[in-house]
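Weekly modeling sync, notes
Attendees: AB, CL, MP (scribe)

Item 1: holo prediction request
CL wants a bound-state model with flavin mononucleotide before deciding which constructs to order. AB pointed out that an apo prediction alone won't tell us much about the pocket. Agreed to run with the ligand included and paste results into these notes for async review.

Input as submitted:
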Amino acid sequence: MPKLLHLSCSPRADSESSTGARVFLDNFRQARPDWDIDVMNLWKDYLPEFEGHILEAKYSRLGGLAFTDSQRDAFAIAERIAVRLALADRVLISTPMWNFHIPYKLKQWIDVITQPGLTFRFDPAQGYLPLLKDRPTVVIIASGSDFVTGMNRGRIDMATPYLRELLHFIGINDVRFVPIGPTAGPAEPIRAARENAHRRIAELAARF
Ligand SMILES: Cc1cc2nc3c(=O)[nH]c(=O)nc-3n(C[C@H](O)[C@H](O)[C@H](O)COP(=O)(O)O)c2cc1C
């Protein structure tokens, strides 16, 4: 059965990015009722701290050394999490913007899955090479500021370029970003931004 992986990255009950994801999934399920939807809630599902054996395993592999038993066990956890991404035919990421960037739980997931031999490899002649096949991916980013019209109240969006680069590094280039913002401030711009984003999300989901 084909699979969509949804990475849900906001801890808030009334999250704008999660609401956008619900609009996406409602439309996606109608268009593709036979698809399996694998939801990973990064605030509730287990993610290992990236230290100790799992960190040493990365360095062992980068250095061409064999794993110790502890490193092999720790690396297997990263492998299980990365496989959920590798097996997904489509990917949906819904995330808040936090301090110009992504929330630390999404960064933790990235640190866990971005491993040599799992999602990238290093070739002395060619440099870093991605290991994942490309697949359609949608990233919904909710922000207090408005990065659609450029009225960002003096703040910068580092989340979008970072995620684009990271996904490219592991092989995912077919990525569309849908900003939702402003989500703070006067009511009317918030409502208009939400409505525009939901319209675009529904269109994307119907032909995803
Ligand atoms: C810790 C934290 C940092 C934030 N930093 C930014 C920021 O740098 N730029 C911005 O536009 N909004 C920022 N916000 C506002 C959130 O992006 C906004 O509330 C957004 O709607 C959160 O997504 P969510 O509704 O899906 O949880 C921040 C919010 C929090 C809690």
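Recorded for review: The longest helix spans residues 187-206.
Action items: CL to compare against the apo run; MP to circulate these notes.
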